[in-house]
Amino acid sequence: MKLFAIFGNPVSHSLSPLMHNGALKELGIEGCYTRYLLKEGHRLREVFLSLKLDGANVTVPHKEDAFKACDEVRGIAREIGALNTIVYKEGKLIGYNTDAPGFYESVKEFDAKRVLILGAGGTARAVALYLKEKGYDVTVLNRSEERLSFFRDKNLKTFSWSDFTPSSYDLIVNTTSAGLSDDSLPMDESVLRELFKNAKYCVDAIYKETPFLSLAKSFSLRVKDGKEMLLYQGVIAFYHFFDGAFSKEEIKRGMIKAFE
What we know:
Elements (H helix, E strand, L loop, with lengths): L1 E7 L7 H11 L4 E7 L6 H7 L4 E4 L4 H7 L2 E2 L3 H4 L4 E5 L2 E5 L2 H9 L6 E5 L3 H12 L3 E6 L6 H5 L3 E4 L10 E4 L14 H10 L2 E4 L6 H7 L4 E3 L2 H15 L6 H8 L5
Parallel strand pairs: 1-2, 1-3, 4-6, 7-8, 7-10, 8-9, 10-11, 11-12
Antiparallel strand pairs: 3-5, 5-6
Helix pairs in contact: 1-10, 1-11, 5-6, 5-10, 10-11
């Protein structure tokens, strides 16, 4: 029997078990996917091995700890320095970042060139580097300077709240946890209002309607929550779990039922 989990804090809200268990059932695989509330990210490897998992997903705030926990990191995750998917293979923990291509799949239909990313954690790293690779003009805005050096080193434009002046961006992306378990906004409302006046699209990595998206809607912007990103990254993660044994379309058929 195959065993998988998602690590995070908080994690009770996660739809990943519904998605992955749906795919396991659809494909006739004997297995189970569950949630694990992990309070200390540095224990991720220890817990993964003690549970004898075949694979795991990792959500906030442990994506950078997940990178450190792996024996081998593949693909764009090497550049990002954060990952959300771990596969146990031949005694090794192998890491991938499926957030990056998953997010791109969810926004590639938008007519957007200039992108502002709010936040500087693992999801922001994934989104920023992947969009830059795809030719977007990317700017990263974070509360403090502290975590922006990574983005500057990758030749991305960065601002902290103290040195930012609202400008014109086509797409604004929230990668912070603001609105996940409360009614907070990712930054000062007056600044967001200025940004929304000139934007076309808003996306929140959180997969529900947050105050950020509600405010964007009041400006008649086209908005998306994180459900599509979650679906696409989940499909790619499952594909890695089973080493490409199933097509992404087959996997998607099982996962999409979690959103119905």
